[in-house]
Amino acid sequence: MIKCVTFDLDDTLWAIDPVIEIANNSLFDWLQRNAQLFVRQFSIADLPRLRDEVLARYPEISHSVTQIRLRLLQEGMRRAGYGPEQAEALALQAFEVYLEGRHQVEFYEHALTMLKVLRERNLQIGALSNGNADVKRVGLGDYFDFQFNAESTGHEKPHPLMFQQALAHAGLRPEQVVHVGDNPVADIEGAHNAGLWTIWVNLNDQAWPGGPAPTQTVRALNEIPQALIEIAEQAAGRVTL
């Protein structure tokens, strides 16, 4: 019996690229007013280069988009001419501005109605994300029972640990859980290797790139409730005692 559904967030329930654009624009508006030395030296176009430099210098934080962004801002502030304490303080303030923008998401069509249907089925619902969105801050707190991300876990999907933590939290076995996500490797391969059923969210009608095939594929979020019914019928053949 299927008792829990876990969801990836970015590019599964909303598009992430427009969100990051909004967040970066909000960030640089704030920097223009509060850290002019930074904007004299760096633009939004410089952020990918700064990110790559941070990752090359601090590979141990590669799993954490929060730590990467914070370190990027701190390094940029120092290079722009701020002292260590001021650079750290400005980076923390700037990050909070960015994070606020990062939660200004626009849900995909049918996302909310789909979650409502699943909630009415009395399923546990969890979020498993490599990003740093908080389901409560985006307005989904009433739909989700738990959340794990790469920051709290210490590993990104497809590493099995996030899936294992979700199973432990829900008190369930892998065959009782379905994971829903857009990424063939992080979501589908990762969940498959952890023993979960999988639903691939393929909103752009892409060809399957290879690897363990998803249990079900949907091309619109309102197809998920029926996909879960079909998985439940398939799961009924498994021993769950």
TrEMBL record:
One of its GO terms (molecular function) is hydrolase activity. Its cofactor is Mg(2+). The keyword Zinc does not apply. Keywords: Hydrolase, Magnesium. InterPro entries: HAD-like_hydrolase (IPR051400), HAD-like_sf (IPR036412), HAD-SF_hydro_IA (IPR006439), HAD_sf (IPR023214). The keyword Magnesium applies. It comes from the Bacteria. GO terms for biological process: riboflavin biosynthetic process. NCBIfam families: HAD-SF-IA-v1, HAD-SF-IA-v3. This is Haloacid dehalogenase. It comes from Marinobacterium aestuarii.
